């Protein structure tokens, strides 16, 4: 039986705004709520800002929460080029500039975590605290790379509710959280004509010849000086807790927190714990 989760119910009554902003020529969809220090939330491969629908209310009580569709994703523009980690990171920095930010905290899930880490390592002047939320396959396992690539392409090029649901269910420990509403939203995005070409750019970092330039490695990860929280789960399909501990050793000033009873989307399956850990870490209560 599906969980009774409604995206609109999660957001009803929350003072928020959804809008588009020009980011160096990329029309970018943004949703924000709250006031204070900026916290930017970044979704994963093939995702969109609705991935954080269950977190906006709680986090906006403490921060100016900003979530967006990465370039090439969701309802943002989809230029005809590979969406490499440096390109996605540059888009994040340019978004911050367009929004008038001088510094921000950042929390990224899966691919978004990879982008967050890369940004912290290469643009440290922009980044406060960093949360790497199930950043995904840090040991570059070929089977995981293939699964992400094939399932994402299939969900777009052979778009059906069944294929989209299958792609989403892989992310969850409790698959009853994959509601019809969530499937319909993603299906609506995946059936947009421009996605047919963009999907190959989205999964380009699953090809080793491209990935090798950005692969998780202590040579660049060790440059992260921002206080960093590695947020993992006990049922992440892309990587084990032992891999999280490896990343923990690579990153100076990092902490590791494991959420139990969740898969690759702890922000959706365990939103209360997810939110509280963010608040405690950013406020320095976990140092």
Automatic annotation (TrEMBL):
Residues 38-271 form the AB hydrolase-1 domain. Keywords: Hydrolase. InterPro entries: AB_hydrolase_1, AB_hydrolase_fold, Epox_hydrolase-like. It comes from the Bacteria. GO terms for molecular function: hydrolase activity. This is 2-hydroxymuconic semialdehyde hydrolase. It comes from Hydrogenibacillus schlegelii (Bacillus schlegelii). The lineage of its organism: Bacteria, Bacillati, Bacillota, Bacilli, Bacillales.
């Amino acid at each position: 039986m599906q969980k009774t989760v409604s995206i609109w119910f999660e957001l009803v009554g929350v003072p928020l705004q959804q809008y588009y902003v020009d980011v160096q020529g990329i029309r970018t969809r943004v949703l924000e709520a709250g006031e204070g220090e900026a916290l930017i939330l970044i979704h994963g491969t093939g995702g969109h800002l609705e991935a954080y629908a269950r977190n906006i209310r709680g986090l906006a009580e403490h921060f100016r929460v900003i979530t967006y569709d990465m370039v090439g994703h969701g309802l943002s523009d989809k230029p005809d080029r590979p969406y490499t980690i440096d390109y996605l990171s540059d888009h994040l920095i340019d978004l911050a500039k367009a929004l008038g930010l001088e510094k921000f905290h950042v929390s990224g899930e899966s691919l978004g975590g990879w982008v967050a880490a890369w940004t912290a390592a290469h643009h440290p002047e922009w980044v406060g605290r960093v949360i790497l939320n199930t950043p995904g396959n840090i040991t570059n396992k070929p089977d995981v790379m293939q699964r992400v690539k094939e399932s994402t392409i299939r969900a777009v090029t052979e778009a059906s509710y069944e294929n989209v649901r299958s792609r989403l269910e892989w992310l969850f420990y409790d698959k009853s959280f994959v509601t019809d509403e969530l499937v319909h939203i993603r299906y609506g995005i995946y059936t947009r004509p421009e996605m047919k070409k963009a999907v190959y750019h989205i999964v380009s970092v699953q090809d080793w010849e491209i990935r090798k330039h950005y692969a998780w490695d202590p040579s660049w990860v060790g440059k992260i000086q921002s206080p960093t929280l590695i947020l993992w789960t006990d049922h992440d399909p892309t990587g084990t807790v032992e891999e999280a501990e490896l990343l923990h050793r690579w990153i100076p000033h990092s902490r590791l927190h494991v959420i139990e009873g969740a898969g690759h989307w702890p922000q959706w399956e365990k939103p209360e714990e997810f939110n509280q850990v963010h608040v405690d870490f950013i406020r320095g209560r976990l140092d």
